[in-house]
Amino acid sequence: MVSHVWGLLAHPSAEFEQIKSENESVSHLYTHHVLLLAAIPVVCAFIGTTQLGWLSGEGHAIRLDMFTALYTAVAFYLLMLAGVAAMGKVIHWMARRYESRPSLHRCMVFAGYVATPMFLSGVVALYPVVWLCLFVGIIGLCYSGYLLNLGIPHFLNIDSKEGFIFSSSTFAIGILLLELLLGVTVLLWGYGSWLF
């Protein structure tokens, strides 16, 4: 797992070829990659919001109690896992019109590896300042977009000219899904304590 993470950051084209040659199953991807990496932003946000609290521009810290932070962290973790699966299905749905017609299995694996920079950018939640989290999150999102564009011809065998339109559309859907996940998480943080 760690070798793929470093490879996706250091030499992504070669790493996609390596991942493709392994013909990894979706269950192996989740147990050896997605489950572990999705825990990074969850654990960091739990620590940051319970120990430091969300730091506002005025210098006030809004700390979450352990119970609220715990159920929010669990919900956010499950939403991220579902988000990766949903993006795999979106990629498969969008790829059905191309001649190569990659399988759902390959699209799910691809989505799991493309999400890697987003998971890694979650480390910044240890110090939960809104502008910093947004800045690092945007960097992670941009690199995920780069991996999406780069990996389509390598991993899904879709021509790079057609792949640009494919990756742009998929990226836009991914951003909408990310906004939905973040919105649900904010609702859980803001109003979740009234539910329990």
UniProtKB/TrEMBL annotation:
One Pfam family matching this protein: Yip1
Membrane topology: Multi-pass membrane protein
Location of the protein in the cell: Membrane
Domain Yip1: 6-179
Transmembrane parts of this sequence: 34-54, 66-91, 103-123, 129-152, 164-191
Primary location recorded for the protein, binned into one broad class: membrane
Keywords on record: Membrane, Transmembrane, Transmembrane helix
Name of the molecule in the record: Yip1 domain-containing protein
The organism of origin for this protein: Serratia nematodiphila
